[in-house]
Write a structure and sequence with these properties.
By secondary structure, the protein is of the alpha+beta class. The chain has three domains: 191 residues, Heat Shock Protein 90 (2-Layer Sandwich), CATH 3.30.565.10; 124 residues, Ribosomal Protein S5, domain 2 (2-Layer Sandwich), CATH 3.30.230; 171 residues, Ribosomal Protein S8, Chain: A, domain 1 (2-Layer Sandwich), CATH 3.30.1370.100. It is built from 17 helices and 25 strands. The chain is globular. GO terms for molecular function: ATP binding; ATP hydrolysis activity; ATP-dependent DNA damage sensor activity; mismatched DNA binding. One of its GO terms (cellular component) is mismatch repair complex.
Amino acid sequence: MSSIIQLLPDHVANQIAAGEVVQRPASVVKELLENAVDAKATDIKLIIKDAGKSLVQVIDNGVGMTVTDARLCFARHATSKIRQAEDLFSLGTKGFRGEALASIAAIAHMEMKTKQEQDELGTHIVIEGSKFVSQEVAVLPKGTSFAVKNLFYNIPARRNFLKSDTVEFRHVMDEFQRVALAHPNIHFSFYHNGSEMYNLPAAGYRQRIVGIMSGKTNEKLVPVNEDTDIINIQGFVCKPEFAKKNRGEQFFFVNDRFIKSGYLHHAVMAAYEGLLKDGSQPSYFLYLQVPPNTIDINIHPTKTEIKFDDESALYAILRASIKHSLGQFNVAPVLDFDRDSNLDTPYHYKDVEVGIPTIQVDGTFNPFTDDKTNQHYTKAGSGSRSGSYSSSSSSSSYSGSGSGSSSSYSGYSKRVEPTASWESLYVGLDTENPETIESSPFTFENEEVTSSLFNDDEVEQATQKTYQIHKKYIVSPIKSGMIIVDQQRAHQRILYEQFLLNMTVNQAASQQLLFPLDLFYSASEMKQIEELKPSLETTGFVFDDSKTEHLVVSGIPVNITESEVSLVIEQLLSDLQDGIPANSYSQNDTIAKSMAKSLAVKTGSYLTEKEQDNLVNGLFACKDPNISPFQKPTFITMRVEDIDKKFAL
């Protein structure tokens, strides 16, 4: 009987390994960027085309490779980081498994150019599907260049699973940002389809964060610094008032490696307890340095999850350090009832000695001198007095006469004669004088209502009232009993159909803003907004295209206030984290749902009786009033028979 188990060929094994290492173009970007960082490069350039599907190229000025290393780096489990098993627990570099280049070369056309500084000539290698096509000597600059073309060309099924260019580009952007944030001492540049996306010179942590996130990020950052025997923490957290709906700007770096940790994220949220609104997420950029032997980074294929030896201690230190920073910079409230902020000494007077104040007196001042700018007072007569007071600055006059008991005042220089008694103005109004009425310039028109506009049933229905319960539900009586409406879901349904109708017929009304709004977002968010602009304009938004680094809103829909614009856009970006639908109808549907969620009246909001009536009437005027846009019931019905059964028990 022939043996059943057999060894797989290398090219098949490489394709299987590629399923773990290379999931999308962003995976290639991550591996190549990390290799460039490990090569001690000071300048790294990333070039992609078609979101990385056609080309991913990384050029660095690192140490380069010899001819032997250039050939050997494409072999399976070939690495320069590990010599023995114990090295796995003392790693200070990034790529170490030796599977990346072999896996990438198995599913793409790959071209490598490398040269060391001391060599006169470099090596140029071309590989297609794990097969070496050519290897030759070439004149090259110092460093290494990897170009990966036609990803998944030999695995069509994997290529069909790739998302749209927008989604894939966002994943590439995320990987680039993570590597660039972890290494601010390296100059990074990023080009997509010939356009420059980033050009980040070597700088500090704060400058690198501002350079990537752009906008007004600098004023949002609160520094965090803590040094203990267990962990060293550096970085920044954002002020609570700048919290967002999504979790896009949350970065943990452990030993200069980006990680994801729900446990550490919970520590950050605990530090913000009581400072954030419901559903808001703080932004943070935290760099943790721990001894390499206290972590295990080999528990996930992408190496984004790390196991710590003492997680509880790290949790407590991280939470305390963030809470201390928020309190130190007066971001968190401080309970001090005896302190009066008005008595605080300004910083520029802190070290100034107290001196005796000096008084300057003008000894030459004479209040009785005759000056044009001074006031004039004259006296005349002995038994009676009359005086005049004038001021050129106030243009007023005063006159008085008699023995001092009577006086008159006029606010103008021209004397106004007193009118007759005010009662005389109304004399004759109570008498009917046809001639007076006819001569009056006003005409009066009386209408007599001959019949009611409503029948008795409608009048009875109009007098029925709605009631709000716990600022959440609206109760309205009907013939068979009553209905209980969820005010938030009902308003979502109303707004959803309104926005969808406006986007379909493209007839949305817009109100122009006297002062346009400037909204700042990161580069990846701005790219998403640019693609959503045509759909948002159909809802009533008007954008100014003169600015490219931030969003300028000059017009908004009529049912949105200025303060709600940023909330609507942030909620929209949060809902589109998984990508913008390619279908126009699906895109409009997603935008309408997101805007309805943002603008709908929330649970806990008080509604007047008129607002309750409008909400109930608007709900039942919808095409589908039974469910919200998110497939949840908007109201329930209770019949009188059901209520009777409750009392019959």
